[in-house]
Amino acid sequence: MGVSFDKIDGVIWYDGRLVPWADANVHILTHGLHYASCVFEGERAYGGKVFKSTAHSERLKNSASILDFEIPYSVAEIDAAKQLVIDKQQSAGCLSPPDRLARLGDDGRVGADQHHPPRHRRLELAELFRSGREAEGHPHRVWPSTGGPIRRPIPAMAKASGLYMICTISKHKAERAGYADAMMLDWQGRVAECTGANIFFIKDGKIHTPIADCFLAGITRATAIDLARRRGIEVIERRIMPEELSDFTECFITGTAAEVTPVSEIANWKFTPGKISEQLMADYTAEVQPKGKAVAA
Ligand code: PMP
Hints:
25% helix, 6 helices, 16 strands, binds 4'-deoxy-4'-aminopyridoxal-5'-phosphate, D-amino Acid Aminotransferase, Chain A, domain 2
């Protein structure tokens, strides 16, 4: 069981000020809670700097605009807020910096529509992930969420809270079946992604990954594609059907939390991390380190 949020030490950047975790609350009638007018980012800092901070801040603003609301802070202000919390937490003796950002809309009324500018604005930064590879040494077993109506919907490009309910349901089902995660299909039945990470397959020395137009185009996904191409490895973005999984020999997932994590099986399909997966894991570890700094504890 995790620790209750109000027992956690540290600060949250809330409406432009730093407040203790226990005090970073919103009203029970908040629009974000009832109608999911909430977007967020999951970010990770290495050596006291958020990796691709600006890309995350830009995606946050873009997610909000897709959902028809505006975050009243510039990308530079959001970047600065994150750095402020990181610096503050570190001075409080925290080893791993905070890394999550969320915004809730609330205009003081109950109702699905929310045309008025938000009366209450909230940006939240909280420490959710510890530094270091989460699944080090433990290739994932992934459950194929192939059947039923639970599929990645659109708009896919927003990192919107509402879209995550299907991820939660899929992940719960996977965990109950003994797997670490679920591989989800898009609404047309094609391989999409996992519940919080993008997916890649390898065959004959080439990397294949679904086109990111029906699911979140991860910042780590883009980094991994870039790293592979820098090594001269061909990356093919294309439609992938679940029946094709038996053709692939390696599989890995990417995400801010997952970094580059090998997958050992998806139901009856088995994969063995090979040279390409291992190379990319090593390249990603090197890439995220702030240049000229030692590896964070
Ligand atoms: N897909 C989903 C549904 C996610 O939640 C995440 C994590 N943000 C990703 C993919 C990977 O995105 P990123 O690499 O930007 O963390």
